[in-house]
Specification:
It contains 18 helices and 21 strands. By secondary structure, it is of the alpha+beta class. Strands 3, 4, 5, 6, 8 and 9 form a 6-stranded antiparallel beta sheet that branches. It has a 6-stranded mixed beta sheet with strand order 10-11-12-15-16-21, with helices on both faces.
Length: 557
């Protein structure tokens, strides 16, 4: 047998035995053994006799990925190279420069600059196009993916590299020398905390990496120190995708007494069944708390929101959370590879599972649906309030999110707000403080002229449906008799669309205002500006200023 085929057979055998971390029994053992033998033989024969030269590693990776795709999106295989890169990233030896990049056609643009970062110090601006990193071209004919550019920007902390950029409005590229990382660029779980007013503090939690609980505790202590009048804290979990389970428990522990159940894992094996309690003395168990969530609050965020809600420790405001109640564990495999696998579902203190999608049941086309209402059960919080499983965390106070108007969506999709603000920043050295800045009256007419100069056009959902109707009428021979009516409708729609910029002026001005503030004051400025404009935050401040209403909600009245 050729050496390559002996290696393939060996790898197949190793793969079989490496899957033994959960030992099948009875019929399962026979099925696993039988199918592994079939798979090993098929894999060997394909690589042995297929008409073209095969890539055994790529072929195996395709098979693994396809198999795991039948389970859920969170069960994944990681090659040795992927693990090595992750270790480097988490070791603190590698760092970036504090920017986020995105693609527009064949251009790589800077779409976010972190304040007080190497990028900020080097004078990089949102809207700059990256042409080359250390003389490696990334745009035009040498166009790279966003991920490739991100990796080029990463390097040993403190190392210097060259960056070639093209700034809109400037004829020639700029050549910059930038130093990576250092203490200026930090992946913080709490990117911002501060006082909305002397009585209400605000803590933004964007992730659940190591030290999240300590960062939240530090923020709450600082807020109490800054304002003796503090009467409430807003914990903002909107858009937080989750992270480490132990940090979810520690974050909850900031407000919840020691020894309380925060979440429970329930899986098939003994090591996937566990209960997690608060272990530390809390920072404050009395101060009123409001937790903000939305449809992108997931996993660990839902553990925190669910435990605070179930234990009646605070009020949840916003929209229903994502509904990810699955727990993953990393399992070592052969040849320095790993698998992150879903091993359990987690449950809140009242006993509800917040998982919203049942991946074990597939539709005929392979898709999955949300858990049906008929399978949703009711539970009660510590004070006896009704709560429900099967669909994430339902807020105590729901703030409906209005969908942007079609014209606004089109302006964003075509990057016209982004481009206009980039030009605005080049012409204005500074603006007022975030909470004081208001869009000058001259900006909106100037923006409309800019948009029209760009040949702005968009298609509404109504027009799409009208096109489908016209096609259907044509197929059935009714298009000619209906031509005049269809044209009249199209004319009326165009008249309405031409007035949409003026009709949705407040919505568009809000986006322009927020984008301008973000360019000058970065993330901190955007957060502070939202204190007087954000519907969920305004509702939270009102609630924390009304003790009777706050207590009535927690009492279930």
């Amino acid at each position: 047998m050729p050496a390559r085929l002996r290696l393939i057979a060996l790898l197949t055998a190793v793969l079989f035995f490496s899957l033994g971390f959960v030992t099948p029994t009875g019929g399962d053992l026979f099925e696993v053994s039988r199918n592994m033998e079939i798979f090993g033989r098929l894999y060997t024969e394909v690589n042995k006799v297929y008409v073209d030269e095969t890539d055994p590693t790529g072929l195996m990776r395709t098979g693994i990925d396809a198999m795991l795709a039948q389970l859920d999106p969170y069960t994944n295989f990681y090659s040795e190279s992927q693990i090595d890169l992750s270790r480097l990233m988490n070791s603190g030896q590698y760092a970036g420069i504090g920017i986020e990049v995105g693609r527009r056609e064949d251009k790589i643009l800077i779409i976010e600059v972190q304040g007080e970062s190497p990028a900020d110090s080097a004078g990089l601006l949102v809207g700059d196009e990256i042409l080359a990193v250390d003389n490696v071209a990334v745009a035009g004919a040498e166009s790279r993916t966003v991920e490739e550019v991100r990796n080029l920007l990463l390097g040993e902390k403190g190392s210097r590299f060259s960056l070639s950029i093209k700034r809109p409005g400037e004829p020639a590229p700029r050549e910059l020398s930038v130093v990576r990382g250092g203490s200026e660029v930090q992946e913080e779980n709490v990117p911002y905390f501060g006082l909305i007013n002397p009585e209400v503090g605000y803590v933004e939690l964007s992730g659940f990496m190591a030290n999240a609980g300590n960062e939240v505790a530090t923020a709450v202590r600082a807020l109490r120190s800054q304002s003796p009048e503090l009467k409430g804290v807003v914990l903002d979990l909107r858009g937080n995708p989750g992270g480490r389970l132990d940090q979810a428990v520690e974050v909850s522990n900031v407000f919840i007494p020691q020894g309380e159940l925060i979440t429970e894992m329930r899986g098939r094996t003994s090591d996937s069944r566990n209960k997690f309690y608060t272990l530390l003395p809390p920072v404050d168990t009395e101060i009123p708390v409001v937790v903000l969530i939305n449809g992108r609050s997931a996993s660990a965020s839902e553990i925190v929101a669910g435990s605070i809600q179930d234990l009646d420790r605070g009020v949840v405001i916003g929209q229903r959370s994502f509904g990810k109640g699955l727990v993953q564990n990393v399992r070592p495999l052969s040849f320095n590879t790993q698998m992150k696998v879903t091993i359990a579902k987690y449950y809140t203190p009242s006993g509800r599972c917040i998982q919203a999608i049942d991946y074990s049941v597939r539709n005929p086309d392979g898709s999955v649906g949300r858990i049906p209402d008929s399978l949703i059960n009711s539970f009660r919080t510590q004070n006896g309030r009704l709560v429900y499983d099967g669909g994430g965390i339902d807020p105590d106070i729901v703030i409906e999110k209005a969908s942007p108007a079609p014209v606004t969506q089109a302006l964003q999709a075509q990057n016209l707000i982004f481009d206009y603000v980039s030009a605005y920043v080049r012409e204005h050295d500074s603006i007022a403080a975030p909470r004081d800045f208001r869009l000058p009256e001259t900006v909106f007419p100037d923006f409309v002229a800019f948009v029209e100069g760009q040949g702005f056009a968009f298609q509404t959902h109504t027009e799409i449906q009208l096109d489908l109707l016209e096609k259907s009428l044509g197929e059935e021979g009714y298009d000619t008799p209906m031509a005049a009516q269809l044209e009249a409708i199209r004319t009326k729609l165009e008249e309405q669309k031409s007035a949409d910029l003026a009709r949705y002026r407040p919505e568009i001005e809000g986006l322009l205002e927020r984008e301008i503030i973000r360019r000058y004051y970065f993330h901190r400025g955007a957060v502070e500006a939202s204190f007087d404009r954000d519907p969920e935050l305004l509702e939270a401040v009102r609630l924390l200023g009304d003790s009777d209403r706050y207590q009535a909600i927690l009492a279930g009245e």
